[in-house]
């Protein structure tokens, strides 16, 4: 069931009778998992999350904006700040680039001059201080008291409509600012319009260019009170009219103060004002009802995986992670199915939901594997969205934002997402067309593929980040090969399987690292320092160094072990990774290298699978040790509780999967590597009739080592469990202890064949 349908159904049920309220209270008294969610986790430091209101995979993210240009304000908000300049309707969760923050509203109790261009936040006349002591957030709800106008702001949202509730001081002037010229970081406006349609309604659009080069946002805002007066500005000029166009338009609207509360509903569309109006909920201004509906929706969403533990902080981290993991991708198609493509054509998702904010370099690793368990319908629609992009561009997407291709990061990791879904039995898309899209993408010449095809690797003198790109293309090739095999395309299977060995061309036996190689096929880049990092310029690795990137051969770990000289030498090198000093060398070090344990960098995605590689070298107890170490040190309940960018759910998905006991080293294999569960009991709801339970007897912070395991009553002595085994339902029972059992999971045939 889609969340839009769930929202409407819940609205109907709540409206029917008091029985629903009683049911809701029973749910809350029983567990109410949303009470454990803290949306402020990750809003500090480098987490780059936002605290505002949204629904699972919702179109809108209505959230406060601080008005600061800076890397740690990519979401518009950082917990270190205490100034607000508005409440916008689009936000990014945990990315490393700032964009969106469209259609900001700001309540105010005085008339201000909007004719000037505000060079900095200090010059914005409608900004306000606030205190975190007067700020709250829960799934689907945000509240803050603005100290300067003395207005209490509350926000909630449905699938496509945001709800604002402003409570002014008694007898104060009631006014709202809408500033379409506002933008931070990468974003700047190209064309805007504000229209006073009637006494209750503002409409218009905001076109901008930033990370998304062609972003067009149309809006409808409907107020609970009639507009008494207004001022409209166009490019610094006060306009005596009911509408205004310009690069930067803004308006201040005024209301009577007969009662303290002013409410507003806002809907957006990438297509038109008409579609935004159609997206606007028709329900009356009943803020508390919407808030309750959204809370129930989030309760359902985050308890798709339910954990049992006496430790509340673990519940907070887990359910917050479940919350963060369902913020993106975001709904992009309108209620009528229409959405705008980068080339300004309008497509229609007639029988699916189109999504955007696809951070694929990050999310193919754990976020998408998690979604195959908790949101398979969304996975299918995400792939159909990718295919819609391919139909226009004749290439699969890399990183899409508001319907735009940003070409951010390396590889084509839409490919493993598609292959993983198909091989796990998630259908709803044309497999043959998807395969042709993957093959076409990997056989074209752009983004280094010309060199990759010509040399069997990418020479460092021809393209930056050559090592990372080569390794990732090799994995993408392996994924294409598996799809070819499944579809009976034997020649293609052999071709792409052979090309998937490209990583071997960059392995240096003398140093034990993947290194940049010149186009002569012989000469390594010198000098070589495995701790050296260069961000984007003269770099062999993407946002990292040789220590962090040399392990990315998820499709052929057994051969990677052979290249290192066998299990013992390989595992020793892994131990060295965690034991090395944590200094990073260079004059242009990537900010993304964070969350360091030795040279392991949990704050960025290339490291996320590494702790699980001990399983492949017959030392699963070391995987268990290091997974626990990462869980214990890289996550907490503070605003700085994420050691790196959330990256649209990836950091949280790693926590979710690892905390319940397994992780997807190679997502497209359909298998998960077993680590060390931290919960006494975990229940994954697969359907109304079926669940998969993970039990960990004697588990504690000290009892981190698996002593034995049973799957559905049968002895389980493998470090790999397949997706099919999980979705079949049943119980995986672990017995945990404080000392390693060096016999469990250790044998030469413990891997599910890939």
Strand order of the main beta sheet, please? 2-5-6-7-8-17-12-11-10-15
The portion of residues forming beta strands comes to 15-25%
Mean pLDDT: 94
**Total DSSP helices:** 19
Identify the overall geometry.
globular
Q: What is the CATH topology assignment of the domain at 3-302?
A: Beta-galactosidase, Chain A, domain 5
Structural class: alpha+beta
- The first-level CATH class name of the domain at 3-302: Mainly Beta
Q: In total, how many beta strands?
A: 39
Task: Provide the gyration radius in Å.
Answer: 26 Å
The largest pleated sheet is described as: 10 strands, antiparallel
Fraction of residues in H or I helices: 25-40%
Note the gap between the termini. Answer: 32 Å
pLDDT below 50 for ≥5 consecutive residues: which ranges?
11-29
CATH architecture of the domain at 3-302: Distorted Sandwich
Descriptive account of the structure:
There is one protein chain. With 754 residues, the protein is α+β, with helices and mostly antiparallel strands. The protein has a domain at 3-302: Beta-galactosidase, Chain A, domain 5 (Distorted Sandwich), CATH 2.70.98.10. It is 28% helix and 24% strand. The protein contains 19 helices and 39 strands. The strands form 11 sheets. A 10-stranded antiparallel β-sheet has the order 2-5-6-7-8-17-12-11-10-15, covered by helices on one side. Strands 18-34-35-39-36-37 form a 6-stranded mixed β-sheet. A 5-stranded antiparallel β-sheet has the order 4-9-16-13-14, with no helix packed on it. A hairpin with a 5-residue loop joins strand 20 and strand 21 (346-348). Helix 1 (3-16) crosses helix 4 (287-302), helix 5 crosses helix 18 (650-660) and helix 12 (466-486) packs antiparallel against helix 13. The longest helix is centred in the middle third of the chain and has 21 residues, at 466-486. The radius of gyration is 26 Å and the shape is globular. The model is unreliable at 11-29 (pLDDT under 50).
